[in-house]
Design brief:
99 residues; Alpha-Beta Plaits; two-stranded antiparallel ribbon; 2 helices; 6 strands; globular
Length: 99
Amino acid sequence: MYKLFVGGLPFSTTDEEMAQLFSQHGTVASAVVVKDRDTGRSKGFGFVEFENDDEGKAAEKALNGSDMGGRSITVNQARPKEDRPRRDFGGGGDRQRSW
């Protein structure tokens, strides 16, 4: 499996539309637009999985920077969550402060 991160999506993009766009470059195993869990609205990014690495790489090269619904999309190979730096905004929670 070759998993791609797709950013800059129009907020109206559906899973089916994304799958249709990427299927021009190979067999799409899955296409998911990430949605906010509270509102159900798109977060403007998603993931596409190809069954074949070569097809996934070809789609990445062909579609990175291309136009979708008037927006330029970013297409990169997805990285596992553990490879990304942790973003700690230092907010929230019931922590006791020592100051």
